[in-house]
Design brief:
With 391 residues, this protein is α/β, with parallel strands linked by helices. It is built from 12 helices and 15 strands.
Length: 391
């Protein structure tokens, strides 16, 4: 799929009904009265007949191989909603854009959505930097739910921005608590030199009870084991019993592979890794990662079954969260209406006593727009997980 196909205004919707609104003509003894009666009747019916134009959601992300599953999940949700009659008798439609992981393009797309009055809310953006840039454009105009942006800088960035994933600082703190429970005492902290990586590393430092024997940022461009070999060679002399990696991406993967290559016998704590890497025998045996994966529930199971039938593979956590974002916005429109501010106010008013119905449990947001009810887990490379509530 080329760039034009991804960013050129792709839309997805099922066919919607007729827009014929004319009532039958009323009979009357005099033409003038008949016309007046007809106009009054037509005016009354115009106010009663529901609008049949589709409801439009903006959907924006960086449609690489990781995010494409999220886009497909949105389409799965739209099919499901439209098959049961849509929202308030209207079909649901999405307007898809690609921000290319860039802040400037994200701002332009946000401006487009705000100016287009048919767009009532936004799902996106998928990464933190584009989300932060676009949030100032949406503020006061369009509610946006980001399924996967995790930078702590997003907290409170806009009263119109809501997030479904716990942020990186919370992930770092969770892994520090896990290290404390396991009795680990000497940590090396390596982190991707990005806002996400720095936030998770700082939180790990604050909450770890042992000694930090070394800390270093690694440039995101360092993507091979050879690039990070000097770091591992240097810090193995410090005799750590745990290595923390903040910001798992290609940099983090390179660190993991070099630790395994050098035979460094440490426990490794890192951010969530793609599910297909868990069976990779080149990863360290004592690898633990924080997971934002949802708990099991009938809604999630139905979605996973439908996704597998349509795409031939299980959905990722990114896909599951994108599906949930569509469902939350659908609930908001069904209960509060399709006006932009009504949608925002509904999301903002959710709380523990009046939560939204997420696909894996109740959902509401804290004062900074983050997920108040979402839990984290820590998993090992075999896929066995323990809830953060249990340690």
């Amino acid at each position: 799929m080329n760039e034009a196909q991804l960013s050129g205004g792709a839309e997805f919707a099922l066919p919607h009904g007729s827009r014929s609104l004319l009532p039958p003509a009323a009979a009357g003894p005099r033409p003038g009265r008949m016309l007046g009666s007809l106009l009054l009747t037509l005016g009354a019916l115009w106010g009663c007949v529901p609008d049949r134009e589709p409801i439009v959601l903006g959907v924006v992300g960086s449609w690489n191989t990781t995010d494409m599953g999220a886009r497909q999940a949105v389409e799965t949700a739209v099919r499901e909603i439209n098959a049961r009659g849509g929202v308030r008798g209207r079909q649901l439609e999405v307007r898809v854009r690609d921000d290319g992981f860039g802040a400037e393009r994200a701002v332009r797309i946000a401006q487009e959505f705000v100016a287009d009055r048919s767009v009532v809310a936004v799902i996106g953006h998928s990464h933190s930097n584009p989300t932060l840039a676009a949030s100032q454009i949406y503020d006061g105009h369009l509610a946006a739910i980001s399924p996967t942006a995790t930078s702590p800088e997003l907290a409170g960035a806009s009263r119109w921005l809501f997030r479904l994933s716990p942020d990186d600082a919370r992930a770092g703190a969770t892994l520090a608590r896990f290290a404390n429970v396991r009795g680990l005492r000497r940590a090396v902290v390596l982190y991707s030199n990005t806002s996400n990586g720095a936030a998770s590393a700082a939180a790990f430092q604050r909450h770890f009870r042992g000694e930090i024997v070394g800390i270093d940022p690694i440039l995101p461009q360092k993507t091979t084991p050879a690039d990070v070999e000097p770091f591992i060679t240097h810090y193995r002399r410090k005799r750590p019993d745990v290595v923390y990696i903040g910001g798992f991406a290609t940099t983090g993967e390179a660190v993991l592979r070099e630790i395994r290559r050098q035979g460094l016998e440490v426990e490794v704590l890192t951010e969530e890794i793609p599910i297909n890497r868990m069976a990779d025998d080149r990863l360290p045996a004592n690898l633990y990662f924080v997971s934002r994966r949802m708990g099991r529930g009938p809604g999630l199971q139905r979605f996973e079954t439908a996704f597998i039938q349509q795409h031939g593979r299980p959905p990722s956590i990114y896909a599951s969260l994108a599906y949930e974002a569509v469902m939350l916005l659908t609930q908001a429109m069904e209960r509060a209406g399709t006006h932009r501010k009504a949608i925002r106010d509904y999301l903002d008013a959710l709380d523990a006593n009046h939560p939204g119905h997420g696909v894996a449990g109740p959902v509401w947001f804290d004062a900074a727009g983050g997920p108040a009810a979402r839990n984290l887990s820590v998993c090992n490379s075999a896929g066995t997980c323990i809830s953060a509530r249990d340690f």
